[in-house]
């Protein structure tokens, strides 16, 4: 009996065929050699993880809760954790949903908000992981220009009018106002206020992704878009058009995968249903550990801010010292990243193998653009690099760029 070869790829859904591998994850595969200095992955510094506090918290959780810590739990999340988040933001716990990492939150938001063909507005550039999360729901993207002050709100208004004139349904704006991934830029207070008011007038949702907001090491803090939206709504979270997402991954530990979304009731209700179909609930034990760690969170944040501030400033100093003329770069006030722009005509994807030959790696910028572009840009992460590695890596990268410009 003969059988015909079964073409499994032909059975994949249309959504599956739109999925692409993360450029960052693929790059990380080629930089695993121990002698390569990688500024590619956005990794928190592992030496700052509060290991002894986590060990104590895990023991306390098992002592206090026993088998309940290892049991299935509610989809909404561990009640004390939700209540703590809600209290900090001045909203009811019913408006808070715990998710398994911010990435799951973005995926679930895409699932419950985006219909095929909806226009999703994103910054140019924007977080690659958000594009990956939204893409299976088949949106159309429109890019909003950014500069050192963040989103260009006047350009946003022009794009809104253009999209609406073309009969396109503009569903939401995805934004990272604090120490943006990938650029490290921060949206100015004036633009935050204008952005919230403009989107409210147009009936446009905002997804505010804020995993880095606590990691400010210079400059003055600004209210979140969610806070401004809440004020505009008279303090009523049910009328706030801003959806807020944040995480404990960048402040405590990433491996526990604890994050949250806060939004109006109808959105939360659908997130609960979508999460039930995804993973039922975020691991109970992990949520309880995070809750036990909340008393040390202020201390941990101060430690992380200090170290990242030192490393960020060191990277900026070495860029100024070693990079050739004509190279521009951002100077973040917090977070984990900075953005480098090379002269036109250079391609950072093509340059990457030459950098790896010199034992240094980065992320090319083009994958962060929803509609293409940015071939002459790159993202550098300073968070997990020791000072001597920053010195060595920036020297090697500067040599690579100087050679390319020669």
UniProtKB/TrEMBL annotation:
<keyword id="KW-0808">Transferase</keyword>
<feature type="domain" description="Aminotransferase class I/classII large">
    <location>
        <begin position="48"/>
        <end position="397"/>
    </location>
</feature>
<comment type="subunit">
    <text>Homodimer.</text>
</comment>
<protein>
    <submittedName>
        <fullName>Putative aminotransferase</fullName>
    </submittedName>
</protein>
<dbReference type="Pfam" id="PF00155">
    <property type="entry name" value="Aminotran_1_2"/>
</dbReference>
<dbReference type="InterPro" id="IPR015422">
    <property type="entry name" value="PyrdxlP-dep_Trfase_small"/>
</dbReference>
<comment type="similarity">
    <text>Belongs to the class-I pyridoxal-phosphate-dependent aminotransferase family.</text>
</comment>
<dbReference type="GO" id="GO:1901605">
    <property type="term" value="P:alpha-amino acid metabolic process"/>
</dbReference>
<dbReference type="InterPro" id="IPR015424">
    <property type="entry name" value="PyrdxlP-dep_Trfase"/>
</dbReference>
<dbReference type="GO" id="GO:0008483">
    <property type="term" value="F:transaminase activity"/>
</dbReference>
<keyword id="KW-0663">Pyridoxal phosphate</keyword>
<keyword id="KW-0032">Aminotransferase</keyword>
<dbReference type="InterPro" id="IPR015421">
    <property type="entry name" value="PyrdxlP-dep_Trfase_major"/>
</dbReference>
<dbReference type="InterPro" id="IPR004839">
    <property type="entry name" value="Aminotransferase_I/II_large"/>
</dbReference>
<dbReference type="InterPro" id="IPR050859">
    <property type="entry name" value="Class-I_PLP-dep_aminotransf"/>
</dbReference>
<dbReference type="GO" id="GO:0030170">
    <property type="term" value="F:pyridoxal phosphate binding"/>
</dbReference>
């Amino acid at each position: 009996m003969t059988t015909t070869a079964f073409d499994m790829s032909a059975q994949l859904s249309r959504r599956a065929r739109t999925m692409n591998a993360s450029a960052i994850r693929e790059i990380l595969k080629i930089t695993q050699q121990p002698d390569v200095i990688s500024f590619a992955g956005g990794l928190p510094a592992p030496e700052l993880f509060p290991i002894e506090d986590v060990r104590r918290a895990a023991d306390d959780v098992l002592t206090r809760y026993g088998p309940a810590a290892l049991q299935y739990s509610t989809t909404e999340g561990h009640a004390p954790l939700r209540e703590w988040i809600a209290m900090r933001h001045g909203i009811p716990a019913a408006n808070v949903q715990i998710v398994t990492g911010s990435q799951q939150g973005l995926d679930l938001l895409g699932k419950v908000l985006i219909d095929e063909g909806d226009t999703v507005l994103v910054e140019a550039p924007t977080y690659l992981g958000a594009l990956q999360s939204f893409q299976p729901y088949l949106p159309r993207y429109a890019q909003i220009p950014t500069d050192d002050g963040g989103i260009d709100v006047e350009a946003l208004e022009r794009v809104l009018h253009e999209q609406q004139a073309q009969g396109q349904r503009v569903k939401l704006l995805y934004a990272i106002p604090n120490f943006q991934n990938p650029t490290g830029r921060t949206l100015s207070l004036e633009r935050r206020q204008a952005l919230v008011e403009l989107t409210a007038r147009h009936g446009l949702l905002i997804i505010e992704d804020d995993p880095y907001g606590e990691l400010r090491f210079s400059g003055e803090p600004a209210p979140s878009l969610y806070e401004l939206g809440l004020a505009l709504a008279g303090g009523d979270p049910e009328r706030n058009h801003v959806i807020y997402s944040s995480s404990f991954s960048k402040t405590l530990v990433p491996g526990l995968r604890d994050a949250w979304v806060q939004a109006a009731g109808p959105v939360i209700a659908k997130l609960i249903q979508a999460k039930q179909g995804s993973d039922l609930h975020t691991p109970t034990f992990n949520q309880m550990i995070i809750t036990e760690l909340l008393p040390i969170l202020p201390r941990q944040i101060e430690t992380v801010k200090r170290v990242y501030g030192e490393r960020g400033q060191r990277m900026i100093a070495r860029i100024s010292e070693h990079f050739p003329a004509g190279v521009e770069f951002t100077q973040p006030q917090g977070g984990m990243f900075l953005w480098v722009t090379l002269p036109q005509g250079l391609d950072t994807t093509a340059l990457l193998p030459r950098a790896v030959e010199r034992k240094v790696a980065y992320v090319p910028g083009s994958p962060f653009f929803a509609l293409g572009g940015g071939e002459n840009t790159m993202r550098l992460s300073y968070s997990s690099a020791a000072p001597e590695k920053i010195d060595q890596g920036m020297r090697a990268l500067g040599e690579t760029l100087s050679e390319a410009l020669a």
